Amino acid sequence: MANCLIMQVGEPNVVMNASLVGVINGCKKYKYYDNAYGLKYGLDGLKDKAVLDLYALKDDDLSHIKNTPGAYLGLSHYALKAYDENDAYYDDIASLMEENEVESVIIIGNNTAMAMVYYLNQYFEKYHPYYRVIGVPSDFRNEIYGTDHSPGYASAANYIAKTTAEIAYDAKVFQHNGIYIIETMGHESGWLAASSILAMMDDDFAVDFIYIPEMNFIERKCIDDIAHRYSEKKRVIVVVAEGLKDLKGKNVGKCIEYDAVLGCNDYSGAAEYLKRRLIEQEISSNVKIVSLGVTQRIAMHMASDEDLIEAFEMGVEAVHFTMEDRSGAMVSVRRLGNHEYSVSYEPRRIKGVPLTRHYPIDWVDMLDGYVTQDFLEYIRPLLGD
Length: 385
Prior knowledge:
Blueprint: E1 3-9, H1 16-30, E2 35-39, E3 51-53, H2 59-66, H3 88-99, E4 102-109, H4 111-127, E5 132-137, H5 153-172, E6 178-184, H6 191-194, E7 200-201, E8 204-205, E9 209-211, H7 219-233, E10 235-241, E11 254-259, E12 263-268, H8 270-280, E13 287-291, H9 295-298, H10 305-323, E14 329-337, E15 342-349, E16 364-365, E17 370-371, H11 373-379
Parallel strand pairs: 1-2, 1-4, 4-5, 5-14, 6-10, 6-13, 9-10
Antiparallel strand pairs: 2-3, 7-8, 11-12, 14-15, 16-17
Helix pairs in contact: 1-2, 1-10
């Protein structure tokens, strides 16, 4: 008898539960495992041994879960660190697996989840070589290396683009409607802010300027560019990532949530700072800030069909990889074409603690504060119909 244990780790998104249902369906499809269990609240659920029998869920339940945003199993704020014999979490995991006759662990989530795959695999190789662990990327920030993109990103991008377009139409109704600054998530990368380029208004791009952490943010040039555009249009749409950095690499905004292990979890104030400087420079006294907040990661009504399909399929594929005795790897997306968009799924070994996958600097127009055609070709197929 062999069973599978599933965890959801990191941050919730629109398609994380689709991957969960994909794993459950994969277990049933291949009939390799006798049961699939879910660990509630990740590592926080270990002490209570909060394990769910996922085979007890009916088809209607699974369909509902698949199309529900968030994380059905619940998440933990704790990030697994490198193994230390004094770290009880590792022994607790092994004990839970033994008690429930679990052979494989599948972890769905962001870079925190992929780090857990790496650390657990090192532990398993040394102390429990018959155990396996596989990761399923699920990251609305799109910051996981080794995959063309992460499920969750396309849906967040769609929400940001549609919301930005709606804001632009709102700004259009008055002759002098000021400056709108839209702040997206993105501590270290600009993937989310860049997606606002998809916002269209009257067959034209709705956004005037996009500022992301990877670019050289020169305050004086930024203010001059906005002032010039405002003098022409009397309304300007600016999108900034919360992790916007100055030329010295320091965050323009302030850290409002700090973790001793992970560092700063949340920045805020990039938009506030830019607003204050625009008013001080007398560019306009009418500067509005729209912070998209958590809605950008959890907006099910803006889910990309392609996103949901891939998230589900990657969950199924994860099961297949465990059956091939693979461990310490994640399900990676390989893009096969853009014109007729298609992908394949491959196992990719996680060889170290994952680093942030940054937005490519050659996809940034440094002079105009914009993104390039390369990014449009990258992201449009991900949104499906």
